[in-house]
Amino acid sequence: MRKKIIAGNWKMNKTPLEAVTFAKDLKAKLSGSSGPAGGSVPAGSSGPTGGSGPEVVFCVPFVSLIPVIEALEGSNIAVGAQNMHAEDSGAFTGEISAEMLTSIGVSHVIIGHSERREYFAETDASVNKKVLKAIAAGLAPIVCVGETLTQREQGITIDLVRMQVRIALGGVPASDARGLVIAYEPIWAIGTGRAATKDDAQEVCRAIRQIVRELYDEETAQALRVQYGGSVNAKNAAELFNMPDIDGGLVGGASIKPEFESIVKGA
Ligand code: PEP
């Protein structure tokens, strides 16, 4: 049985002070509702620290990572970054390495979000480099894939997503692929208020699991977690997350609102 994972992508929102206030509030409201990190867990397991709910991750801006990690101490809520560089160190002004993230207690990192692909020229190849580096550093990558509206209308969604997954996972051994999270995020659904239907989301998430099965094996396909992201809110979260191949969500706008509590509790 795969443990659900709900990650909040705060994007470029909240000052460190605002971030800490919000994180502390959610920590209090979610105490007992969020489970410890872990990919596949035995059926019925509530984990060593007692949380039986989904794994919860706050992916916050770089400057808020340390204060939010401190604010969430003693909870099961993990903290992730929204990006990282693929190199260890060097002349990459403005960038942050995987080791810098792990050194302060960051456990997850979003890689290849569509906004990074669109505004910062990230490609499937650079996503693959980052995935390999994140894994080597001990970070859990949340790898984003998804199609534009035009691509959906052209009927090439599954082919495109298959290609994105295939390239992103190049060189990743099965043992590491089992711990990965792939977030299926149709670009037309991000920030638009127009989420995919549960059936459309399920169709693509199922195809993602199928490509993982073809690339690796059944065990890996069953262990790897696939999230849906794109206008998830308190009203649609439960029906999306109840689909057989959807193991939770990557939540943008609603993750910095009080309704994030309902989204986690609904999962
Ligand atoms: C996102 O940015 O990853 C996202 C899913 O955003 P939203 O939930 O606001 O659509």
Topology:
Blueprint: E1 5-9, H1 16-30, E2 55-59, H2 65-71, E3 78-81, H3 98-103, E4 108-111, H4 114-119, H5 124-137, E5 140-145, H6 149-153, H7 157-168, H8 174-177, E6 181-184, H9 198-215, H10 218-223, E7 225-229, H11 237-241, E8 248-251, H12 260-266
Structural write-up:
This protein is α/β, with parallel strands linked by helices. The chain has one domain (5-265): TIM Barrel. Helices cover 39% and strands 14% of the residues. It is built from twelve helices and eight strands. It has helices at 16-30, 65-71, 98-103, 114-119, 124-137, 149-153, 157-168, 174-177, 198-215, 218-223, 237-241, 260-266; strands at residues 5-9, 55-59, 78-81, 108-111, 140-145, 181-184, 225-229, 248-251. An eight-stranded parallel beta barrel has the order 1-2-3-4-5-6-7-8, surrounded by five helices. α1 (16-30) runs parallel beside α2. Phosphoenolpyruvate binds next to β8.
